[in-house]
Amino acid sequence: MTSITKPIISPAPQIHHFAGVLSDMDGTIVDSTQAIVRHWYRIGKELGVDPEVIMATSHGRRSIDTLKLYDEKLANWTYVSEIEGRIPRELGRDAKEIPGARKTLSDLNKVGAPWAIVTSGSHALVSGWLEVLALVQPKHLVVAEDVQNGKPDPECYRLGRSRLGLAEDASVLVLEDSPAGVIAGKRAGCKVLALTTTHPAEQMRQANPDWIVPDLQSISVLDRNEKTGLIEIEIRDTLPN
Fold first, then answer.
1. Overall pTM surpassing 0.85 (yes/no)
2. Pick from 20, 46, 165, 166: most CB atoms within 10 A?
3. Of these residues, 24, 107, 177, 215, which one is catalytic?
4. Which residue out of 26, 31, 107, 210 is catalytically annotated?
5. Would you give per-residue pLDDT tens digits along the chain (241 residues)?
């Protein structure tokens, strides 16, 4: 999962202020492409389904929703937690952090910013990746089990904003790498920064994000205002959107 090689349009860096940050996990914080491919090949073989067919629609989607398409009996949280919990343990060597992710999370913590991970993955999967990669643990987490409907439904990001204790009209930044996730963030009333780590800029542009950048090296968490509580974030290397 590498950034799509496109010429980067680099206007002057922009400074924006947000009350909180909500970040997707897979493709935004962790590059687990090879591990996920191996995972779905294994599951596809067990189900008797072409793994390529599964993977064509699985990214950004909850496993429980993907499994419903092929075997309703396996579409339960006990099974999903079991198979997803095995991914970091057994395939962790195939994953790495997205460029800039470690610094972004660490800097959010350093300035005392309200932030959370909002993901289509299960709690077992997310906690496993954070441990394997030794990344900063968020105080707040929204996982697949927490919502009735997965992305592009905005439920997950609305819940994430609520868990940060922010009002519906608060300015919240969502970090996403999938069109479905961008749509979810926008429908939740958030500003969305789209990464081209998984999908080309052309696909991300169709979801109407506020900014498109190669990866998290294109943002910097600068400070948090003690009086207003707003987080100051610099965004640069933006692609046309």
1. yes
2. 20
3. 24
4. 26
5. 544 444 455 668 999 999 999 999 999 999 998 998 899 999 999 999 998 999 887 877 889 999 999 999 999 999 999 999 999 999 988 899 999 999 999 999 999 999 999 999 999 999 999 999 999 999 999 999 999 999 999 999 999 999 999 999 999 999 999 999 999 999 999 999 999 999 999 999 999 999 999 999 999 999 999 999 999 999 999 999 8
d(C-alpha 40, C-alpha 44), whole Å: 6
Q: Which residue in the block uniquely carries the two structure tokens 């989607």?
A: 61
Distance CA 117, CA 130 (A): 11
Residue 121 CA: distances (Å) to CA of 1, 17, 30, 64, 97: 17, 28, 12, 9, 16
CB atoms within 10 A of CB 104: 26
* 146-180 burial: b if 16+ Cβ within 10 Å, else e: ebeebbbbbbbbbbbbebbebeeebebbbbbbbbb
Structure tokens at 43: 């599951």
Cα–Cα distance, 154 to 13 (Å, whole number): 29
26 is catalytic: yes
Neighbours of 13 (CB within 10 A): 13
Dmax (CA) for the chain in angstroms is 58
Residue (of 2, 193, 36, 65) closest to 128 by Cα position:
36
Q: Is 223 a catalytic residue?
A: no
